[in-house]
Amino acid sequence: MSETIERDLMSDLEVGIWLKRFWVESTQAAIDLVLGTALMAMRTILEGHHELNYPEQVTQLILKSL
Predict the structure, then answer these.
(1) Among the listed residues 24, 26, 28, the one whose alpha carbon sits nearest the alpha carbon of residue 36
(2) How confident is the model over 19-37, as a mean pLDDT?
(3) Are 62 and 41 in contact (CB under 8 A)?
(4) Which of 5, 13, 45, 64 registers the highest number of CB atoms within 10 A of its CB?
(5) Does pTM surpass 0.85?
(6) How far is CA 47 from CA 17, 50, 56, in A?
(7) Domain count along the chain
(8) Phi, psi (5° rounding) for residue 23?
(9) Does 1 have pLDDT greater than 80?
(10) Could you tell me how far CA 52 lies from the centroid of its own chain?
């Protein structure tokens, strides 16, 4: 993935951790979780196999997992 995407995500995660909105043992594992899930969600959307609110469902699941 792009270094810019990973750097921006790292920054967002660090803010969320600092604000106590997220708790993660491993920042790298959290980055992998978010980017991997997002990549597969994009594939699902491009293939047309999803409900209208699929992006919101995926986003909600990612945030709950952090």
Answers:
(1) 28
(2) 94
(3) no
(4) 13
(5) no
(6) 34, 8, 17
(7) 1
(8) -135, 120
(9) no
(10) 19
Task: Classify burial at 64, counting beta carbons within 10 Å of its beta carbon; exposed 0-12, middle 13-18, buried 19 or more.
Answer: exposed
pLDDT digits (tens, 9 = 90+) for 29-60: 999 999 999 999 999 999 998 899 999 999 99
Q: Residue 49: left if φ>0, alpha if ψ -120 to 50, beta else—which one? A: beta
- Domain membership of residue 60 as a residue range: 3-65
Q: What percent of the chain has pLDDT over 70?
A: 98
Of the candidates 4, 1, 36, 31, which has an alpha carbon nearest to the alpha carbon of residue 16? 31
Tokens (6 digits) for 25:
């043992």
Tell me the average pLDDT of the chain: 92
Question: Phi and psi for 51 in degrees, rounded to 5?
Answer: -85, 165
Which one-letter amino acid corresponds to residue 18?
Answer: W
How much is the pLDDT for 53? 95
